[in-house]
Amino acid sequence: GCVMLTDASPPEHAPEAKYMMPLRATWSAALSAAANRGAIERLADNLADSNRALAAAQAKLTEAQAMARLGEMTAGAAHEMNNPLTVIRGRAQLLATHLADARDRTTAEKIAGAAGDLSDMVTALHEIARPGDPECSPTPMTDLLDLAIMGVEGAQERVRVELPSDQSGPLVVDVDAPRLARALGELLRNARDWSPNGIVTVRVHIEPSDGRLVIRIEDDGPGLSSKAMRHAFDPFFSERPAGRSRGLGLPLAKRLVELHGGSIRLEPGDSGGAMAVVSLPDWRPQQEREAGRAA
Known about the structure:
Elements: H1 17-98, H2 102-129, E1 137-140, H3 141-150, E2 159-162, E3 172-175, H4 177-194, E4 200-206, E5 213-218, H5 226-231, H6 249-259, E6 263-268, E7 274-280, H7 286-294
Parallel strand pairs: 2-4
Antiparallel strand pairs: 1-3, 4-5, 5-7, 6-7
Helix pairs in contact: 1-2, 2-6, 3-4, 4-6
C-alpha cells in the first residue's frame, strides 16, 4: 500500500481525519527537519571554506609583514656591514700578496674569504626581502636552463633535461632570465648536493588543464625528512652539517619564483629522492597570449 499526501485536508467529520492529521503533521515535521539539516550542512561547508581562505590570507599577510621587517633590517645591514667587510676583504687580499710564509698567506686568504661569505649572506637576505620588480623578456627555454646549469659547479655533466615533445617550435618563456635562472640554479645545486654521485633530472611540460608551465627538478638521493619538507624554505634552515650550507638558497629560489607570479613546492620524487616543482601560470610571451585570444 502507499500513503498519498495532498494539500487538501479531510473534513473534520470524515472517519479518516483522526488518523491522517497526526500522520500529516509527522511527515511535515520530518520534511522540514531534512530541509533545515541540508541548509545547516551547506552553511557548515561554506564556513569551512571561508576559514581556510582566511587562514591562507593570514599566512600570506604574516609572511609579507615578516619580509617587510626583514627588508628594513637587511637594508641597514647591507649598508652598515658591507662597507667594513669590503675593507677587511680588500686588506686581507692585499696582505696575502705580501706575505712570504705560506701558512700566513693561507690565513689571510681565509680572512678574505670569510668576509666575502658574510657580505654575500647579507646581500642574499636583502634580495629575499626586497627582490625588486622583474624585467621580463621572451627567452628560449633551452637558454634559460643552460644559464641555470652553467651557474652550478659540476652540473653540466650530471643534469638530464627533458623538454615537451609536442611543441611545434622552440619553447619560449617571458621571464626575467637571470633571476629565474638563479632560482633554478639554487634548486639544481640543492639536488646536486643531496645526490653527489647521481643524476639530476629536469622535466619541463605544459599542464593541459590550465596551461601552466611546470618545471620539475628531481634527484636520486635519500629524499627529504618530514622536518625538511616543512622548513626547507625557512631562511637559515639546513639539515647538512654546520658550515656546509647557509640555508638561504631555497628561500631565495622561492622568492624569485614568486616574483614571476609562480609557486614552488617540494615533494617525494618518483625514484625515491626529492623533487622541486616550479609552476608558472603566466609564462607566455605577450605576442603569443594575444594570438591565443584572437583565435
